[in-house]
Design a protein that fits this description.
By secondary structure, the chain is an alpha/beta fold. The N and C termini lie far apart (81 Å). Strands 1, 2, 3, 4, 5, 6, 7, 8, 9 and 10 form a 10-stranded mixed β-sheet that branches. Strand 1, helix 2 and strand 2 form a beta-alpha-beta unit. The longest helix has 25 residues.
């Protein structure tokens, strides 16, 4: 072999080695687009990296910003895993073809089927990893507990002029309404929405915390909110927040029937994920008891894993330790979103 041949062979060997190092480095990376912005999640991510050697590169934005970025990047997107808050938002992103289905025996065993997208022969496109309940907050001086024991009672004329909500089109409400319509059917569901509108104390506005404060101030007597907003006020060291919670009570609706509506924070593998195996490994890690503790308690939520309980005094104080949760599949509910939005337009729900 002459000198030039030896140099050529050396160049090929170096190139091969370099490609191998690049491939190895690629194997140790996970690009995460997250709509969750909680400091407790940092410990969870750091633990994943320490135990697997996979470095997480994170992009933080709100749900709408992440979806817009994915659409703009297309096939060039570096995203491997997408974390979004609310089943409606996950469903919208899924309908736009931004996720890919995966198969995982670990996730199938850990996460209830009703907290995931509907399964197909190719797998599941998104999975819930924490849940929050949508509860009724009421003023016990004006409303009896038995009058707000179900979502259906929000349309009862007995509550005329007493109900406050945020926008009906907000994903938190849209998911709840789509679930009620799934249970009641289209005709009764639309009539129920009309009844809720008729019972409004004022036009929908503000966020969930505003609804709780509206009940405490007397602006209304009944409101709907996610449990973690209640927990934040319970944990607050501000006197005004404690004053709010002293004036309201919490009802976990439909305990005697279908159970209280729950929604999710969830994740999916991006359609064009370059590190697919790492993405699935991360998804499976999120279902571990360790990650579930951080994933749920980071926002005063509940774990999604079957049978797993998280100790949270604020949740206990509001009566959320052992409530009955509904089992209507969120993947099915997601398909009702457009139909329910049209119903709300017809009944004047802003």
């Amino acid at each position: 072999m002459n000198r030039y041949s030896k140099l050529s062979m050396l160049a090929i060997a170096v190139a091969a080695a370099t490609m191998g190092v690049s491939a190895q480095a690629q194997d140790k990376v996970l690009n995460l687009y997250s709509a969750r912005h909680y400091q407790t999640d940092e410990v969870m991510y750091d633990t994943f990296t320490r135990t697997t050697g996979i470095k997480i590169n994170r992009v933080d934005a709100d749900d709408a910003g992440i979806v817009a970025r994915l659409r703009a990047e297309g096939a060039a997107s570096p995203a491997d895993v997408i974390l979004l808050v609310d089943a409606a938002r996950l469903a919208v992103a899924d309908s736009q073809g931004l996720f890919q289905p995966i198969k995982s025996a670990k996730l199938d065993a850990a996460i209830p089927a009703n907290l995931r997208a509907a399964a197909t022969p190719d797998g599941v496109t998104w999975t819930g990893f924490s849940t929050r309940a949508r509860v009724i907050v009421y003023d016990p001086a004006r409303v009896k507990a038995e009058d707000v024991a179900t979502y259906e009672q929000l349309a009862d004329p007995k509550l005329k002029g007493m109900v406050c909500t945020r926008s009906g089109s907000h994903p938190y409400n849209l998911s709840l309404f789509a679930t009620v319509v799934e249970r009641l059917g289209d005709q009764k569901g639309e009539a129920w929405l009309k009844g809720v509108v008729d019972n409004m104390a004022r036009a929908p506005k503000g966020g969930d915390t505003d609804q709780i404060k509206g009940v405490a101030s007397g602006e209304c007597a009944v409101a709907v909110t996610n449990t973690y907003y209640v927990a934040r006020l319970i944990k607050s060291d501000k006197a005004e927040d404690q004053a709010v919670m002293n004036k309201v009570r919490v009802s976990f609706p439909n305990q005697g029937t279908s159970g209280t509506h729950v929604n999710i924070a969830g994740a999916a593998v991006a359609k064009y994920a370059k590190n697919r195996d790492n993405a699935i490994q991360f998804m499976e890690f999120l279902s571990s008891p360790f990650a579930q503790d951080y994933f749920a308690n980071g926002n005063n939520e509940f774990p999604a894993v079957k049978g797993l309980k998280i100790d949270n005094p604020a949740i206990s104080k509001m009566g959320g330790d052992n409530f009955k949760a509904e089992t209507v599949p969120l993947g099915v509910v997601a398909k009702n979103m457009t139909k329910v939005q049209q119903m709300m337009d017809r009944v004047g729900y802003k």
